[in-house]
Design goal:
Structural class of chain A: alpha/beta
Largest interface: A-B, 69 and 69 residues
Strand order of the largest sheet of chain A: 3-2-4-7-1-8-11-10-9
Oligomer: homodimer
Radius of gyration of chain A: 20 Å
Shape of chain A: globular
Number of strands of chain A: 11
Largest sheet of chain A: 9 strands, mixed
Distance between the termini of chain A: 35 Å
Helix content of chain A: 25-40%
């Protein structure tokens, strides 16, 4: 077969997007979290939508079997929000599950089968003790060759971080500055798991020490605080607590429609102009530890389909499950050169909310939280709001956000999804 | 939005199909089972195929997280068969997972994004003790309202069977005759989990009793044997052991291509002319216990798209996880009237391999086995072989099998997929 440019047979637009509050949510199940996201999405559709017009439901979810003893999360969400008997399914690619769900929703409309699709994801993770949850997450690595040898995700990403340090001279402070930047964004996000800056955290610790009447730490700044192992312990070196995203409950979803009917729902649809997805080998079987090859392939596909380059993208939500992941992401996407340039981008303010290339203005997985099956869809929710000027306090204002991108990784890079969005 | 006929933007054909041997397979993992199915599929492509031309992989799987502590089964299968970095994903709708994977693969080609897709499923179930596996399967029901109240699948389907008995006077012998018929078919299937007739089983038991020197049972026929609770105990009344499908390891997959290139791979492609999928409420929340409403909706969609009726279908592979399930399936599909007519169809030979409407000529889930995430794809493998006259000893010969259908249920009817195939 001849090589050809990948094109969708029909254009697809996003006309609504919503998410539940992210955090520890002991009072609700996955299906209830998803219903919260659904109602939030419904309220976002400017001209209104009759949910009965939704023709299919794609739900990303990583491990409800493990956390809730519940399979079939797709049809349960459909039943919960009144969509039965619409076709509903769960898609799973670990932490990329809901980006894959969104992509499959796009494909569903492009196929001609559907005109309107609800796509998103949900994850309820806080229900088990933390060590069980770490084991449940480790099922996303290779059980035969990795988790069975003792690897968990902080360790897998630590291997990539130490390789990056060795090859490029990257420092732990470079990584911590990613966390500082993302908390600075997430502090402005009312739905974030931890809506606070690192300075807020530092000041809380100082206040607590004063309250207790013990010795009061005298950190000069956030970086010094983060370098104090009494307050920011090592999880798997160089990943300290603040290099890791939290374990979060949450859900997010978007409403996709065929391009030709998009304006029936809003005057400001967001068009999906590029989608890429690739798989990768497990870490033990990969040629490089300092980049995610699957992300490079997915980005290339998305850029080609959208007919744009990395230089055209205004803002991006990228997969920062660990701080090193954001450093790799912004290089894999072509925004910065792999190595020192990417490692120092956060520290130099390049990726700040008011920087040249804002990255993770939502707070990212690091601060907003990482309910694994909902994360990709939540990235897209942020993009929907930023592109329409509806992101409130954290709205990017130093540029017209007419082109944006989400980058979502499954596991340690065995899946990557990159999607490009346009406001016309 | 106006109601419109559902149509795919592009035609899709199947040019290869294969499966692993089904059974207890302690020596292999899910990814190895899938590789077996892949190699079998590859050998079935008449004019050959370069696997590097495959553009995406859709893998149905229900519970590798629970049985193998392994998520991301889609990308692992891709890596195992050399498809990295092609996009790969897992789709899950309990026991309908791989029919959903096949349907999503069809949609992927119709969307214009792909010309060639590998779709299938795998399940490795025998690895846990049987009671754990029963619990893992129960995650497919509603954890909040059903499994937590003590229901497992034999009990859920038993509720449907007793309702059928109450409403229509269906007898347990009616149900047992479904098992006898399906074992009679499966005995001719070398890849079946139990390639033997019920008479074979009965004769084995007699021989064993003689060997032991004890009293030799004097059953007149299979039905009398199956009514002997010493040899066919009740699991959840009226479901006896032989009313239930086994716990099976196995994988299956098919190769889908855009219609316009199908003849590059074989002179006898099998075209997918109808696909339907619907979701249903859980059993506790459903209006009827004697049919699967989702199956009726999915069938209606598939018939409409294919522009055929039930009377046109020559053979069907239907979801007989329990004998009552086949009785409901052949009514939901419109082959027989719900009630006595459907309940007695097997006993009257209507659904036999040489009957008016052969059902489950493969042996069905009952005899061929039910590796849940692989079952739907395995149904399609049988259809591929039957439509091309390649089913060996169990080939249907009393008619030209030019139109066939597969019917796959997720859980207790929360998902149904119906697909219609044509040989031109």
């Amino acid at each position: 077969m001849a090589k050809r440019k990948r094109e969708l047979a029909r254009g697809v637009a996003m006309v609504g997007a919503g998410m539940s509050p992210f955090g520890i949510r002991p009072d609700v199940t996955n299906r209830e979290l998803f219903a919260e996201a659904f109602l939030d999405m419904k309220a976002s559709v400017d001209k209104g939508v009759d949910p009965q017009e939704i023709e299919a439901l794609y739900v990303g979810n990583c491990g409800a079997e493990m956390w809730e003893s519940q399979s079939v999360i797709g049809v349960l969400c459909a039943s919960e929000i009144g969509l039965t008997p619409r076709p509903a399914l769960k898609v799973e690619d670990a932490c990329a599950s809901s980006s894959v769900a969104v992509r499959e929703g796009i494909i569903g409309i492009a196929s001609g089968l559907y005109d309107m699709v609800l796509a998103g994801g949900t994850e309820k993770m806080s229900v088990l003790p933390i060590d069980w949850t770490t084991m449940a997450l480790a099922c996303g690595s290779d059980t035969t060759y990795e988790s069975s040898a003792g690897f968990t995700f902080p360790g897998l990403y630590a291997s990539m971080a130490t390789a990056h340090m060795e090859k490029y001279g990257t420092t732990h402070d470079d990584l911590l500055k990613v966390a500082i930047k993302n908390h600075s964004n997430g502090a402005l996000n009312p739905k974030a798991h931890f809506p606070m800056t690192i300075k807020d955290v530092m000041n809380m610790r100082i206040a607590k020490a004063k309250e207790k009447g013990g010795p009061v730490p005298s950190w000069a700044d956030e970086l010094e605080f983060l370098n104090d192992p009494r307050y920011n312990p090592v999880i798997a070196w160089p990943n300290t607590l603040f290099d890791c995203c939290p374990i979060t409950d949450g859900a997010a979803c978007i409403l996709l429609v065929a391009e030709e009917i998009a304006k029936d729902f809003t005057d400001t649809p967001i068009y999906i102009i590029g989608t890429g997805q690739a798989s990768g080998h497990n870490l033990h079987d990969r040629d490089t530890l300092t980049s995610i090859p699957a992300a490079q392939v997915a980005a290339q596909q998305a850029y080609e389909m959208a007919d744009v380059g990395p230089e055209d993208i205004k803002i991006a939500e990228v997969h920062d499950c660990f701080t090193i992941a954001e450093v790799m992401a912004i290089a894999d996407l072509g925004f910065f050169k792999e190595g020192k340039e990417a490692a120092t981008a956060a520290g130099e303010g390049m990726t700040a909310r008011d920087g040249r290339r804002p990255i993770n203005v939502s707070g990212g997985l690091k601060c907003k939280g990482h309910p694994v099956g909902a994360t990709g869809a939540a990235q897209v929710v942020e993009i929907f709001q930023q592109m329409r000027g509806e992101a409130g306090q954290r709205q990017v204002t130093n540029m017209d956000v007419n082109l944006a991108l989400n980058h979502n990784i499954g596991a340690h890079g065995t899946t990557a999804v990159v999607q490009i969005f346009e406001r016309r």
